[in-house]
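Minimal example, chain plus nickel (II) ion.
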Amino acid sequence: MGSLLKVRQYGDPCLRQKSVLVEEIGVPERMLIQAMVQTMHEDKGIGLAAPQVGINKRIFVIDIGDGPMVFINPKIINAEGASVLEEGCLSIPEALVKVERPEKIRVQYRDEDNKLFERDFDELQARVIQHENDHLDGKMIVDYATEEELAKWKKKLEEIEKEKK
Ligand code: NI
């Protein structure tokens, strides 16, 4: 059951919008989440945010190899440390950008059963959560790129934008 969703590519306006809070977690939301998890697994991603499938709601899913986790209306309420790692994104195939982010975060969020959590995350989980959370505010890895990196990816980004049309 379920169907795969189309992952929007760089240049799609959905990726640049600020997503809205989810007011009710019901059947449509749970169906969307289920389809997002399937799509993430199919595309071998470790995270997928709703705007990436054209839905500007504050929802994302992650799976760093230990099973899917759902984040609804996430809020990063504390952050400490800093680390740099190269990140990719299903919406910008082939591009890798070095991104500096806090190492440890505390996140408040709801799951698909509307249960409220407040949890600490570190390492890869913290990184993926922050990457996906950025998507909810219309932010993407290229926004962290240096002029030099951007120049390197410029042609590829233009190609992705063109293919999309
Ligand atoms: Ni991404």
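The first helix runs from residue 27 to 42. The mean pLDDT is 94.
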